[in-house]
């Protein structure tokens, strides 16, 4: 799969996708290579010259990660667990673990392998992380690379209102500098990076239906302005303690805003490659859906209903209808409110139900990106009207990291 290839004009994918997969038995998952390629180029354009670190959590298919990293403008991996990072670092030289780890066996392996230690950076946000890691890795061996995570949420009303993901307790430049000094005090640790993920901007669409989108836009505008100033001060404070190799920020939904901050040296993205339903509601960018899963109609319990086998591929996050998968082909179908998407069966209603017979297929989109890979062993890569490759997911390679 060549993501660097020139992208074409907008297209209607359904004739090609249907023709390429008509011989397959559901359930199966599909990646539309043309859409994937378009999305990759769009991400690079939005990053405006800042390198994009590929977020593996949002893909979980090694071949897709590998192909993305061959595209000029993408460099390095943002992993989500240390065992995953050790696996990926067997072939990639720059892997940052985006979340703190307490996996002792993985830490011991990292600490005993000079090459892996040079390729992997751990995330910390508290002195306790440092102390527990030091206890496991011991005083002798190659240096352990450390990245600090800065809390980049928006706090209002004296901190009583918190808008953003609850990740790090390190919020102020003073907090960051204090933790940086504690990293520097450990003889085996090497402070190389600072990271902050502004989920209140990157992960919330500013064009949702209804009046709430205006409140979201106002919040994001205020948050971006506050964060640019605070992050720059935090970077300066940490650089007074150590020479940083990178300052990572953002996500798919905030690339152009984060990349515009002079203090940021790289941005992170992954979901934007697959463009799940979560990214249908942004004014700043419009990716093409690239990932689907396909189920069979196995029942017609009434003239108003068609039931597919399976479907309960629910996205993580606060429970709600926006976590459910969405039927997208044939058009005009929807879930039944009282049943939603079931583990073994999902009834559908809508104007096109009459067109569905037992054995027909229904195509769905997942709300999120990488979580789709936890439900299938392989992805069908479709380019034009043919399957050009069949590639294993993490699950297909026998890997389950969370």
Low-confidence stretches are none
Assembly category? single chain
> What is the end-to-end distance?
28 Å
Indicate the CATH class of the domain at 33-274. Alpha Beta
* Overall geometric form: globular
Strand element count: 19
The CATH superfamily of the domain at 33-274 appears as: Alanine racemase
DSSP helical segment count: 12
Q: pLDDT average, as an integer?
A: 94
Q: Class by helix and strand content?
A: alpha/beta
| Helical coverage, percent range | 25-40%
The Cα radius of gyration reads: 22 Å
CATH topology type of the domain at 33-274: TIM Barrel
Overview of the molecule:
The chain is α/β, with parallel strands linked by helices and 402 residues long. It has a domain at 33-274: Alanine racemase (TIM Barrel, Alpha-Beta Barrel), CATH 3.20.20. Helices cover 29% and strands 25% of the residues. The protein is built from twelve helices and 19 strands. The protein has helices at 14-21, 33-47, 62-69, 82-88, 104-112, 114-119, 127-137, 173-185, 199-202, 212-239, 255-259, 271-274, and strands at residues 28-32, 52-55, 74-79, 95-97, 120-124, 144-149, 154-156, 161-163, 189-196, 246-249, 266-269, 291-302, 305-309, 326-329, 333-335, 345-350, 361-365, 378-383, 386-392. The strands form three sheets. Strands 1, 12, 13, 14, 15, 16, 17, 18 and 19 form a nine-stranded mixed β-sheet that branches. Strands 2-3-4-5-6-9-10-11 form an eight-stranded parallel beta barrel, surrounded by six helices. Helix 8 packs across helix 10. It is globular. It starts with 13 loop residues before the first helix and ends in a 10-residue tail after the last strand. The mean pLDDT is 94.
């Amino acid at each position: 799969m060549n993501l660097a290839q020139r992208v074409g004009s907008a297209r209607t994918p359904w004739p090609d996708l249907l023709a390429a997969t008509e011989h397959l038995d559901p359930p199966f998952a599909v990646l539309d290579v043309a859409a994937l390629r378009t999305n990759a180029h769009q991400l690079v354009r939005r990053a405006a010259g800042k390198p994009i670190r590929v977020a593996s959590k949002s893909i979980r298919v090694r071949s897709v990660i590998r192909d993305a990293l061959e595209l000029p403008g993408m460099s390095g991996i943002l992993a989500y667990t240390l065992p995953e990072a050790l696996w990926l670092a067997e072939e990639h030289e720059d892997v940052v673990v985006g979340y703190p780890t307490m996996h002792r066996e993985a830490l011991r392996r990292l600490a005993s392998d000079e090459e892996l230690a040079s390729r992997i950076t751990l995330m910390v946000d508290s002195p306790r992380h440092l102390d527990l890691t030091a206890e496991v890795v011991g005083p002798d061996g190659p240096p352990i690379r450390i990245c600090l995570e800065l809390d980049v949420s928006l706090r209002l009303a004296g901190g009583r209102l918190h808008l953003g993901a609850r990740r790090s307790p390190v919020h102020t430049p003073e907090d960051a500098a204090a933790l940086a000094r504690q990293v520097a005090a450990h003889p085996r640790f090497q402070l190389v990076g600072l990271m902050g993920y502004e989920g209140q901007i990157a992960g919330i669409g500013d064009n949702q239906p209804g009046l709430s989108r205006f409140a979201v836009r106002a919040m994001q505008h205020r948050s971006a302005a506050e964060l640019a100033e605070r992050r720059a001060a935090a970077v300066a404070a940490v650089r007074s303690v150590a020479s940083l190799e990178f300052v990572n920020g953002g996500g798919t939904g905030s690339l152009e805003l984060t990349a515009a901050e002079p203090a940021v040296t790289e941005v992170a993205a992954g979901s934007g490659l697959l463009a799940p339903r979560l990214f249908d509601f942004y004014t700043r960018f419009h990716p093409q859906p690239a990932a689907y899963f396909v189920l069979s109609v196995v029942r017609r319990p009434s003239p108003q209903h068609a039931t597919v086998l399976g479907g309960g591929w629910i996205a993580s996050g606060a429970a709600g209808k926006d976590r459910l998968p969405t039927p997208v082909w044939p058009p005009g179908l929807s879930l039944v409110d009282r049943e939603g998407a079931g583990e073994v069966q999902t009834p559908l209603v809508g104007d096109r139900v009459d067109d569905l017979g037992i054995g027909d297929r229904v195509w769905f989109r997942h709300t999120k990106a990488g979580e789709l890979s936890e439900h299938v062993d392989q992805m069908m890569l479709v380019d034009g009207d043919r399957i050009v490759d069949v590639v294993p997911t993490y699950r297909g390679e026998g890997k389950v990291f969370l």
